[in-house]
Amino acid sequence: KCGSIDHAREVFNKMSKRDVALWSAMIAGYVRHGQGEKALKLFRQMEQKRINPTEVTFASILKACASLGALECGKQIHAHAIRSGFGSDVFVGNALLDMYAKCGSIEHAQEVFDKLPKRDVVSWNAIIAGYTRHEHG
Fold first, then answer.
1. Other CB atoms within 10 A of residue 118 CB
2. Could you read off the pLDDT of 98-132 as tens digits, one per residue?
3. Is the Cβ–Cβ distance between 101 and 117 less than 8 Å?
4. Which of 2, 32, 126, 137 is least enclosed, having the fewest CB within 10 Å?
């Protein structure tokens, strides 16, 4: 959070044991610094190490997809989130709404919104912003 993503990566690389929280923090850092491609690459490495993503990991990596306009990648991550048991998680659902809307697929965003078992203010804001962004509202 202090701004030195390169230093953070150096520290990350030196860690002998990396748990999901550490992987997720590094992915989130890349996303926060506008480095979505690096976030996606690190997510793939995490998968190869058989580290199971959490809802925080999925939310961060979906933000990377949104920032890159990577709809197909976002759809793959969506499927992975469902397989991992986060299909009805509101935190992941909100990230999915945002990703689909930013990638221009308001239909998918609406589908995710409709299937959320619980909607919060973030859910409503994401769907409204999506419709506004694409002039459907």
1. 9
2. 999 999 999 999 999 999 999 999 999 999 999 99
3. no
4. 2
